[in-house]
């Protein structure tokens, strides 16, 4: 009997690109980068990429930050500080710090890796996974690493299988019968189908696997090219597709899903509507995203808070939550909560009503407030008697109402509302 094959994750590192603002989330990213935005009651978006890496067996990680990184850095320091160098484990936070010269910050996704070549070299790894830090999904990267080695690819690209009509918003792979990539098209008007099913297309997830020695040379060549935008999707990947061997990895093969799930779960919560819906989807009877799976947990920073509490039991003043998720530290005092998701330390007061509400941490809801189909930013004080979600035209005078009718409420917006009263 032969010896068991060593996990490739033991000799790989994850490099997480977490520098983007995520401007489509509007005021939610005024003070934090998109990967630092809260999600799912107690986690942040970046926790999914980091947890996937950890659960896959990867113990060397780096996070490249740039836009308003303090919230993200603080979260990682608090929630991801359990790596031990003496066990050959590392999690480095790499802010854009003009390491190459005194002029340039990170100029693109490829440049973010290029500027940290010496740090990656110090890890002594054979393989590198480039990950986007702003998507919600559960994936075993070991499966993708194994395919990369078995196919002898120069780059392996994680791909979603999506209906062709939806693929126009993605970078799309044109592939042969063996999923070898023959073309890379950025947001094509007429996406190519796959050989096995012409009704679907393969869309890039922004996940790439390389042998480190190979990528290092490509990054140096790209850095010397003055006409390059120094971006993986625009420069590095198309050049490999043209002159090397690029292979698609279908997410369906490595997705970690609920046993009853019929589809592979992946979400880009990059708009207010998508963010609101993905959070509220977790309140479904059997959510597509399984956060209860103890074999593939989503790790995060957990505050030391008491359990949630529901108080008052009168006909019109009953603390209750129906088809909802309520995090620790919440006090639901005489408030009716329906189909909502409340993050840590949300306090509500008597006679208030929340329906289809996504409420970020440390929000206080005043008496008699009625809030419907809203996203409330961290730390907002909802005034007594405020009504939002019943008159879109009136809401739009002070708050941001999305195309889908979701109202975003932030502290400055509430200040403007108070001043106008």
UniProtKB/TrEMBL annotation:
Q: Which residues form the Nucleotidyl transferase domain?
A: 14-283
Domain Glucose-1-phosphate adenylyltransferase/Bifunctional protein GlmU-like C-terminal hexapeptide: from-to ranges: 306-409
Class in the EC hierarchy, top level: transferase
Reactions catalysed: alpha-D-glucose 1-phosphate + ATP + H(+) = ADP-alpha-D-glucose + diphosphate
Q: Which InterPro entries match?
A: ADP-Glc_PPase, ADP_Glu_pyroP_CS, GlgC_bac, GlmU/GlgC-like_hexapep, NTP_transferase_dom, Nucleotide-diphossugar_trans, Trimer_LpxA-like_sf
Positions bound to alpha-D-glucose 1-phosphate: 106, 171, 186-187, 204
Hey, which pathway is this one from? Glycan biosynthesis; glycogen biosynthesis
Marked site: Could play a key role in the communication between the regulatory and the substrate sites: 66, 105
**Swiss-Prot/TrEMBL GO biological process terms:** glycogen biosynthetic process
Q: Which GO terms describe its molecular function?
A: ATP binding; glucose-1-phosphate adenylyltransferase activity
Q: What is its EC number?
A: 2.7.7.27
Domain of life where this protein originates: Bacteria
- Keyword terms: ATP-binding, Carbohydrate metabolism, Glycogen biosynthesis, Glycogen metabolism, Nucleotide-binding, Nucleotidyltransferase, Transferase
Q: PANTHER family, from UniProt?
A: GLUCOSE-1-PHOSPHATE ADENYLYLTRANSFERASE, GLUCOSE-1-PHOSPHATE ADENYLYLTRANSFERASE-RELATED
**What family is it from?**
Belongs to the bacterial/plant glucose-1-phosphate adenylyltransferase family.
What's the stated role of this polypeptide? Involved in the biosynthesis of ADP-glucose, a building block required for the elongation reactions to produce glycogen. Catalyzes the reaction between ATP and alpha-D-glucose 1-phosphate (G1P) to produce pyrophosphate and ADP-Glc.
How does this protein assemble? Answer: Homotetramer.
Name of the protein in question:
Glucose-1-phosphate adenylyltransferase
Query: What is the native source organism of this protein?
Result: Poseidonocella sedimentorum
């Amino acid at each position: 009997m032969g010896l068991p094959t060593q996990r490739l994750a033991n000799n790989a590192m994850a490099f997480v690109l977490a520098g983007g603002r995520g401007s489509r989330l509007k005021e939610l990213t005024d003070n934090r980068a998109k990967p630092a935005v809260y999600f799912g009651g107690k986690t942040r978006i970046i926790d999914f990429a980091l947890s996937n890496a950890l659960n896959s067996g990867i113990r060397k990680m780096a996070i490249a930050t740039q836009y308003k990184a303090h919230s993200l850095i603080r979260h990682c320091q608090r929630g991801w500080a359990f790596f031990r160098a003496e066990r050959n484990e590392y999690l480095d936070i790499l802010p854009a710090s003009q390491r190459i010269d005194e002029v340039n910050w990170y100029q693109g996704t490829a440049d973010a890796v290029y500027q940290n070549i010496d740090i990656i070299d110090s890890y002594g790894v054979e393989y590198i996974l480039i990950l986007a830090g702003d998507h919600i999904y559960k994936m075993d990267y070991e499966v993708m690493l194994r395919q990369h080695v078995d196919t002898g690819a120069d780059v392996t690209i994680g791909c979603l299988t999506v209906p062709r009509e939806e693929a126009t918003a993605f970078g799309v792979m044109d592939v042969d019968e063996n999923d070898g990539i023959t073309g890379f098209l950025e947001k094509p008007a007429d996406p190519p189908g796959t050989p096995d099913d012409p009704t679907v297309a393969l869309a890039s997830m922004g996940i790439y696997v390389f042998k480190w020695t190979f990528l290092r040379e490509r990054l140096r060549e790209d850095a010397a090219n003055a006409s390059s935008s120094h971006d993986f999707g625009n420069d590095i990947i198309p050049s490999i597709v043209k002159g090397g061997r690029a292979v698609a990895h279908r997410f369906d093969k490595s997705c970690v899903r609920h046993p009853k799930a019929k589809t592979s779960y992946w979400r880009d919560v990059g708009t207010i509507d998508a963010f609101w819906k993905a959070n509220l989807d977790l309140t479904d009877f059997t959510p597509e995203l399984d956060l209860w799976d103890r074999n593939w947990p989503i790790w995060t920073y957990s505050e030391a808070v008491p359990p949630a509490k529901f108080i008052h039991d009168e006909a019109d003043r009953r603390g209750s939550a129906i088809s909802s998720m309520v995090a620790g530290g919440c006090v639901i005092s005489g408030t009716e909560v329906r189909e909502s998701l409340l993050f840590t330390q949300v306090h509500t007061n008597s006679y208030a009503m929340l329906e289809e509400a996504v409420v970020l941490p440390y929000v206080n809801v005043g008496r008699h407030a009625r809030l419907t189909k809203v996203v409330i930013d961290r730390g907002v004080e909802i005034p007594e008697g405020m009504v939002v979600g019943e008159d879109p035209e009136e809401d739009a005078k002070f708050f941001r109402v999305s195309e889908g009718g979701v109202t975003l409420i932030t502290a400055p917006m509430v200040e403007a509302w108070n001043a106008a009263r």
